[in-house]
């Protein structure tokens, strides 16, 4: 980056020329100052700014005059005037093809109401349903595990774009699994500072964490639901399928020790699982 | 003075050799396709290709530009996502990502594109045993929290 000082001779060439001057060089410029020559004693000047706008402080017309006067004689005179005006632009092709350059839409889900005084009503048009079958293999010596498969049936109503919806379900599943198994907020006991404050200490799933098999089916459910084009939300609901992994791991732990009483807390990290397994062998 | 080729142009800078390549790319060169995520080498959003002249041609590898000191660029070739397809259209990796729907919000997609491109440029063709998603192991773009993941081997 270049730090430059703009001198007066580069400024008074009109707004666009000034900007072009400064941005011209290859490197990105940063203006640190503006410098002006101080006029001598014989120079008189005046600046007039006319603005018709009430609240916006941009002048519609600017005028400036400078005179060099000696013994009552004007030796030099500079006058300049400038205005701001929009330059109309004619868009030939869009005009020829009569393309609208703006669009706007709003969807108000029909039939929603809620009476706060009675705590009754219909605040949501629909609920999203789905199910996930999760298979894991637990190494009872180490507390490590592999995610063998997750099979999901998800209800998106009528999917607007199955490719994108599938991606959202895959991503939601992975994020959910990360929350219940890996992602742990650790705070210092002394300073209470967050210790897992970077991706180096706060582990989130990477591609190696993806279950070996992920099968996703859309629920065939074409009943009216009130959503846009009869679709349903797909961003956050699939997140819940990650919880299946928590319970699958818990079941696997119980298989090793039917008596364990784990406290319900996530993430169920490998450390915690190892401790639970140890507890079982005592 | 550090001189190198940035995409298809000669580029020189007076910035200190210890400064971060990512800043040069995004600020001085105004190439904002390369993204800043964690700025500590974990997420891979900032992945670029670095090419070194060798006896038998150029050798390219994917690197995290947030950990790359400018001095490393001297005499080498730096390729950002803008440099993959100077003319119109998509690179093969980009087309696959589009066709398979592997981009969701898209913020980290340039990093994934650069990682996969670097992998393909630096390895023999992927097989089922050594599939394409290996670049993650080499510390390039590997973190996906919001995105779908490309099918194994595709
Ligand atoms: S910004 Fe995350 S690896 Fe560089």
3D structure, described in words:
The complex is a heterodimer of chains A (282) and B (154). Chain A has 282 residues and is of the alpha/beta class. Helices cover 23% and strands 26% of the residues of chain A. In chain A, helix 4 (162-181) crosses helix 5. The two termini of chain A are 65 Å apart. The model of chain A has no long low-confidence stretch (mean pLDDT 85). Chain B is α+β, with helices and mostly antiparallel strands and 154 residues long. Chain B has a single domain, classed as Ubiquitin-like (UB roll) (Roll). Helices cover 19% and strands 19% of the residues of chain B. Chain B has helices spanning 21-28, 92-99, 109-122; strands at residues 2-6, 9-13, 47-54, 57-64, 77-79. In chain B, a hairpin with a 2-residue loop joins strand 3 and strand 4 (57-64). Chain B is globular and about 45 Å long. The termini of chain B are far apart. Classes of the chains: A alpha/beta (282), B alpha+beta (154). The A-B interface holds A 1, 27-28, 163-164, 166-168, 170-171, 174-175, 178, 198-200, 204-208, 210 and B 13, 27-28, 30, 38, 40, 42-43, 100-102, 104, 133, 136-137, 142-149. The site of FE2/S2 (inorganic) cluster has 12 residues of chain B, from loops.
């Amino acid at each position: 980056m270049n730090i430059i000082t703009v001198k007066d001779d580069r400024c008074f060439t009109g707004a666009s020329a000034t900007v072009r001057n400064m941005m011209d060089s290859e490197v990105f410029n940063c203006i640190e100052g503006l410098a002006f020559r101080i006029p001598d004693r014989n120079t008189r000047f005046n600046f007039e700014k006319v603005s018709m706008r009430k609240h916006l402080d941009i002048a519609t017309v600017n005028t400036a005059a400078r005179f060099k006067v000696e013994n009552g004689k004007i030796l030099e005179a500079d006058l300049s005037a400038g205005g701001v005006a929009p330059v109309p632009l004619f868009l030939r092709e869009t005009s020829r093809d009569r393309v609208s350059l703006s669009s706007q839409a709003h969807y108000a889900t029909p039939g929603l109401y809620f009476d706060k005084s009675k705590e009754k009503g219909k605040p949501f048009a629909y609920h999203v349903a789905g199910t996930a079958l999760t298979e894991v293999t637990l190494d009872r010596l180490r507390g490590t595990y592999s995610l063998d498969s997750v099979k999901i049936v998800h209800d998106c109503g009528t999917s607007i774009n199955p490719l994108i919806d599938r991606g959202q379900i895959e991503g939601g599943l992975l994020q959910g699994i990360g929350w219940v198994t890996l992602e742990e907020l650790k705070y210092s006991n002394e300073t209470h500072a967050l210790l897992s404050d970077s991706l180096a200490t706060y582990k989130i799933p990477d591609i190696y964490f993806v279950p070996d098999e992920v099968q996703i089916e859309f629920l065939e459910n074409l009943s009216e639901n009130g959503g846009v084009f009869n679709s349903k939300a797909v961003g956050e609901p699939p997140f819940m399928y990650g919880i299946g992994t928590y319970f699958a791991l818990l079941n696997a732990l119980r298989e090793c020790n039917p008596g364990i009483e784990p406290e319900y807390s996530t993430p169920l990290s490998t450390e915690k699982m190892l401790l639970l397994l140890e507890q079982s062998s005592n | 003075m550090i001189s190198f080729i940035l995409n298809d142009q000669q580029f020189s800078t007076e910035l200190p050799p210890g400064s971060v390549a990512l800043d040069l790319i995004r600020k001085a060169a105004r190439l904002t396709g390369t993204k800043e995520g964690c700025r500590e080498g974990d997420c891979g959003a900032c992945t670029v290709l670095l090419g070194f002249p060798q006896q038998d041609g150029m050798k390219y590898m994917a690197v995290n530009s947030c950990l790359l000191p400018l001095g490393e660029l001297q005499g080498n070739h730096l390729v950002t996502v803008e440099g993959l397809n100077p003319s119109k259209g998509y690179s093969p990796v980009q087309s696959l990502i589009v066709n398979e729907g592997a981009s969701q919000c898209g913020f980290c997609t340039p990093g994934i594109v650069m990682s996969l491109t670097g992998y393909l440029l630096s390895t023999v063709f992927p097989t089922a045993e050594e599939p394409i998603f290996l670049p993650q192991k080499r510390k390039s773009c590997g973190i996906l929290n919001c995105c779908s993941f490309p099918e194994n081997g595709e």
